[in-house]
Structure to design on (161 residues):
């Protein structure tokens, strides 16, 4: 089992004056990240992998503090990651990992695993490309005929996209 997470709200990319890699979470995103920590703990997460972008690392920081595990930056989770790198990562993360990434990376993953998911399970793969900010997918038995993915939603008190 692993959990795919889209980073929390980080404000407007167009209005941010600095590098997009350094764009922080908004106040709304900070609240989403705090609530997400409790959800990840309930899901049994034991490892936190993140895009090196600040907003992704900050999305997992409250979970890091709650779970007592570090946030590990991983290049395969960047917004411009190559499909083969993302697929290699999800195939190797093992049980209990949460992977925090970007909308673009989730779109890449949805397209990339379409063929292999269909071949392994005989069913259509989940479309994770429209995951809302701070939204999570729980993926179980990845790469096997028993693979499943379910949208675990966003922390319950959150209503923002």
């Amino acid at each position: 089992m692993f959990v795919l997470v889209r980073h929390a709200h980080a404000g407007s990319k167009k209005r941010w004056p600095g590098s997009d890699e350094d764009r922080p979470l908004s106040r709304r995103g900070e609240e989403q990240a705090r609530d997400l920590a409790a959800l990840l703990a309930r899901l049994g997460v034991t490892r936190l992998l993140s895009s090196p972008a600040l907003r992704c690392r900050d999305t997992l920081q409250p979970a890091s503090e709650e779970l007592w595990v570090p946030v590990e930056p991983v290049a395969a989770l960047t917004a411009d990651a190559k499909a083969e790198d993302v697929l290699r990562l999800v195939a190797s993360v093992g049980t209990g990992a949460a992977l925090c990434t970007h909308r673009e990376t989730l779109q890449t993953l949805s397209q990339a695993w379409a063929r292999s998911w269909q071949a392994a399970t005989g069913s259509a793969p989940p479309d994770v490309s429209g995951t809302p900010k701070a939204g999570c997918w729980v993926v179980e038995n990845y790469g096997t005929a028993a693979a499943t993915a379910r949208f675990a939603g966003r922390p319950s008190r959150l209503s923002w996209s």
Q: What stands out?
A: Confidence is low (pLDDT under 50) at residues 157-161. The first strand starts at residue 2 and ends at 6.
